[in-house]
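Action item from last week, closing it out:
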Amino acid sequence: MKQLLKRLLITLAVVIVAFFALFTSSYFLLWKPSLQGKCGGRMFGSPEPARPRLARFRGEVVGKKLSIVQYRWLRRRFKAVGTTLSLARELPSTEYQGNVIRHSDRVGDVVVDKSGRFDFGDLMPGVYSLVVAYPGEAGVVFGFVIDPAARSTDVLIDASPAYYCNCCGWDFEPR
């Protein structure tokens, strides 16, 4: 009986130490840099970054919801199967009694399959908005410009839900 109790206490101690180590490393590698603005994410009150320019809109969608283990190298090993990409072309907005009314023309939707790849084909030059909806999560919006003179044609979209951290997902990277 004493042997069993001793093993149980050792196992409990190992679990507590592992949880503490995981939480501490997550704080120093993810949360703290994000709060300090060191992840490339936008800080509150900072200006909106320029929209990426692409010659064509195709690429790969990766990501997974991994709770507090949202390490970039790990979550990008998964294809974001079932993620919905909704694309709309932005049209000139109008102002009505002080309110700005935005107009857009829906281009199409793509649901990511097990390959993780997508291609919206040839798009007219202009400004576009993309809503990326990971299954069971709220969508996040990315903007970009289709410009035939641009060099980038592919993008990597990390659809991993990232509520607390700019380093943990919801990335749109032209390649």
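Closing note: The chain is about 20% helix and 35% strand.
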